[in-house]
Amino acid sequence: MSNSLPKLSNHVPKETPIRFYFLHWRFDCEKDELWNCETHSATKLEPQVARLLTIFLTQQGQVISREKLNDTLWPNTIVEANSLYQLLTKLRKELKDNARSPNYIKTVPKKGYLFLPEISSDSQRSTFTPNYDNQCEKANLPDLVAPLHTHLKNKLLKHCWTLLFTTGACFSAIAFFSTTPAQVSPPSYERHDITYDLGVEFNIAAHQDHDLLAYVEKFNTLEITDKSGKKRFKKTFDTRIAHPTWHPYEEKLAFWQYKKDACILHIGNSRAEILHSSDPIPCHFITPPSWKSANELVLTITEKHGKKAYLYRHKHNQLIKLPLPKEPEESYIGAVRAWEGKIYYLIVDAKFHSRLVSLDGKVHMAWAFPVWLFNFDPAQQSIISNDGSAHHNLIGKYRNGQTYPVFATTQGIFTSLSVDNSGDVYTAAESWQVNIRDEYNLPIFSSSSIDYLPVTNKLGETVFMSRRTGYCEIYLHSGNEVKQLSFHKGHEYVDFLTWDPMLSKILANRDRFLVLYDRADVLTNFHSQHQKPLKQFGWRTNHTVWSTDGMSVNTFDLDGHLLSKTNFESDFIIYHTEDKSWIVIKDGTLYRATSLINFEEQKQVLAKLPQEALNVIKNPRLKNGELFWQSAWSKTDLIWKISLNAPYKVTNIKKEPLIWHYDIAPDGALLVAKMESVESDIKLIKPQTNLTK
């Protein structure tokens, strides 16, 4: 038996697609798609997970060593020891396999791994067992069986009987699915780069009918072009603008402008002339508006306590809050104009599952991962969105549940999405470089991360977070070496890192969990017991930690036992371990108090803060008796400083766009973390069926 592995290609010629069949699974290694015959569902595997499965399927019956797997998956590359383990864990999770009593991947001690099921491929179908064929026919594999019409009717009738729905409701559901094709043949796509001048272009919007594109260039210029990229008109503003959206029929577009601590909605024409501007609307961030009618738009506005949806009637300058069908712990993401010109709302629940709903609460589509980038494809009558992989590839989904790949990016991340009536997808793919530098301004770590959070201690050691393609990694820079402490796929950012008073442990978060590290590894993690995402956390003593979601403050011992819970609402809070006091911002004033329970009686006024220092507060630091924090004003980033000893003077020490984060060196020097190289280009992802038209 040989352990040699073939050189596997990531791309398979379209004329000879390779598909493998085992138990109740079908794997298409051209599309990296795993189909479950029992649940009639498809999963788009991450590229490396798909490559690992392909190795097992092409080497079935052979024990494959760790060395062979590492050499094939990461040729000529030094990888972390747990990288293969991470891939195996993901693949086992997709197959619902148990490492201790495996049905698929068996660990052979000191030798490697063995794939257990019998396998067949397309070229072997004539010799494949009849039992498997019968099983797949019953499971209704999409390209091997007749339409799902009868199956869906029976399944829905059974479901209606189980849930005691009315007969009328059952027949309505059957009628809906009977008009939906059981299996649709989605298009294949090709990418085209639309040529623009060098610069940063993003927030792309394509008109559904007319030969018009709109996008934002260099943050404050609205560009109007045709769909080949030929420039027509532009308008430059004094502050940042974002998210142009064309009217579905008319040559009008709506877009946002950040102005101080508010946002203004502008409506313009195809010549970039402003026809209407709203009153300033208080906001932290905004997302693309959705046209409901000629005079009405649905606006999604991020406020202090999360995103809210509003109906805006621009002729009357009237703003009405919409009653979204969601629970308090769920998050509203945004709205989209889709089927029959109606507006639908995207909700993500506490388990990071997504659903597209109408205001009556009816679910029209669901995903098992958080969707954050989405739009409607009129040609396919589908929703195009990010997928659940670390790379956030683009996928399409029909109302019958069928998914299909649209496009994958090998560098950067898709940040905006627009589709016209022909099914042409326009998107902006952004990439950037962040250099983490030492006190001599020399790079110690280079990353294409979408977030970066450094915290330096008095010994000169820096712990930092780098988030690339969906993975949250914690690193320690000490003694001219960079060491990785964790590797974790999470749906939310690591919001904060902090050293304990003795400089022996590090506190961070993963989603709503608190995580403790030492200089080598993860020590423990536990749930923060907050209903909302964490806003801040830190150390009380060497043996206790605290956290807040802006509504309550919890304290824990290092084993995760809840010691206290105090209802306390604040915009900003941090604990000063040296003088054992809380530093709090409430109602525009900075206070100090030794207790939160008796805060009103004990509070000491330190300073009244300027309005610019209060908008979108984040990233506090306590260093050498001084408090630092970050805010935003007209979407420009500012860093502030105040001494905690009299006189309490507030000073703005930095003001510029795109400050990712910052750090304070042991000598008090300000180190700013910026995206040093930003590239963002508009790409056309075109259905191949359109190329011959």
TrEMBL record:
DNA-binding region(s), chain positions: 17-117
Provide this UniProt record's keywords sorted from A to Z. DNA-binding
Q: Which InterPro entries match?
A: OmpR/PhoB-type_DNA-bd, Sig_transdc_resp-reg_C-effctor, WH-like_DNA-bd_sf
Where does the OmpR/PhoB-type domain start and stop, copy by copy? 17-117
**Molecular functions (GO terms):** DNA binding
Which GO biological-process labels does this protein carry?
phosphorelay signal transduction system; regulation of DNA-templated transcription
* Matching Pfam families: Trans_reg_C
User: What is the name of this protein?
Assistant: OmpR/PhoB-type domain-containing protein
Query: What organism does the record attribute this protein to?
Result: Pseudoalteromonas luteoviolacea NCIMB 1942
Classification lineage: Bacteria, Pseudomonadati, Pseudomonadota, Gammaproteobacteria, Alteromonadales
